[in-house]
């Protein structure tokens, strides 16, 4: 499964009601694959490949950790505590991911 596939899976799980009134950009820097970002704005979600200059929070991890978190096999908080996931920017927004993209 490619990172693009993983991001599309996230988009399919998107919960628009949790995104009402939000205007955020989640940047995913994947150490061993392509970077992607999600734009969450007023109940919508858009996916782009590359790097966003407007990232609200940047999450840095490898592809396997990213896949595990999005499928529910890996707990994001445990990955963070184990050093497999790093966050830059507004770290509290990273916690919103589970509301926006329920597993």
Automatic annotation (TrEMBL):
Signal peptide stretch: none
Occurrences of domain SCP2 (ranges): 16-101
InterPro entries (alphabetical): SCP2_sterol-bd_dom, SCP2_sterol-bd_dom_sf
* Transmembrane regions: none
Specify the superkingdom: Bacteria
What's a GO cellular component annotated to this UniProt protein?
A: cytosol
- One Pfam family cited in the UniProt record for this chain: SCP2
**What is the protein name for this chain?**
Putative sterol carrier protein
